[in-house]
Amino acid sequence: MDAKADLDQYPLFIGGKRVAAASGEYSLDLNPATEEPIAHVAQGGKQDVDAAVRAARAALKVWGGMRAAERGRILQRAATLIEEHQEQLIELESVDAGKPLAAVRRQDMPAVIDTLRYYAGWCDKITGQVIPARPDALTYTVREPVGVVAAIVPWNFPLMIGMWKIAPALACGCTLVVKPAELTPLTMLRVAELFVAAGLPPGAFNVVCGKGSVVGEALVQHPDVDKVTFTGSPRVGRGILQGAAGNFKKVTLELGGKSANVIFADANLDRAARSAASGIFFNAGQVCSAGSRVLVERPVYDEVVDRLVERARSIRVGDPSEPKTTMGPVISAGQMKTVLDYIAIGKAEGASAVTGGARVSGEGYFIEPTVFANVKHEMRISQEEIFGPVLAVIPFEDEADALRIANGTAYSLAAGAWSADSGRLHRMAAGLKAGTVWLNTYGYTDVRLPWGGAGESGFGREHGESALENFTTPKAVWLALD
Question: pTM (2 decimals)?
């Protein structure tokens, strides 16, 4: 199917088919690289959420009651269909989110397929235990699907992070209502169709687009939703926790980050600077685990700043469809304003914008890759998540000082450390307050490893076996033997 031929109207997807929103309203979906409209997307409301939750509840008995091995086969078929349609999905993701085609092809899409195949393999391996509590009884546990899941997906990696939630939920026998980000709904609507084509029962995977304040809130407060999984900002995460308290829903939150990438003087500075630049400028800095703070041991501070500036200036910013483009726009006019406001704040605080610091002229929400030197730990650009291509470079004196600065924010999602001293690396791994620590590298993820943080970075873990805890509940069974 030619994606460009199907960019007029995108309805909701409920009960295994496309349906118009109850209100009949559509919103314009914009290409952030051109500021031009690319689609009309149905705007769901409470009535649509009710319909989607009813469909998910009805499908729960069918999908959850199916043999686990058959669920696995259906998910594998869905992965195959996604592979067969991946070029369409790559193009949609690129134009909708402003992501360079090459980056979606290299990272996002392989991760989507890998995640789905990985959890397809888990379907018939989710087991309980026999626990010999006493000799006159058979006592054992089983793990049951948690029920209907509301998955609220962010705009920075719409399909990849969406699949982090969809695949384990379906593998565990749950059903879903997915709310894609208002800014990037297109790929999720198409993927839902592919799942049904693979054999997923109608209603097991529903997509309701619309505003977070309307659709998201209705899902969080809905009495027939059993679980909410959310990736996004700490502010919205707090609201979700409050809303979920109504019927004590289970909640998983993956929120923000202000991750520190620590470079010691004995590190391979070329590799460290190259990786540190990628760690902040990949996806225009719109990454929860972006290495937005680079901490550099003072003897090599100036040298590392020079290397980072050189890297930043070599980045090709421009049209995401061009093969040589390495950085696209930020997602929206609002996000562009936020990032530019933080750049102004950094300058006002006394930090030095040694490269970048402005909007790229012309159409689209493009911002120059920006490096701030002479940053103090207490500055707002060191403490607050910017979510854009802005790097704060901070000097430190020794290991203790590095840990003080690295751990001195409200976030704890990820961190990195660079050194030729293996003992120092292990001490840093132990001391850094983060859910993931990279040593002599930065930014890699794998679905087989747990992912998440604490504090302002949220709670709970996605990926790996840990994610199965999010979508199942244990039941103890006690059979008397006399």
Answer: 0.96
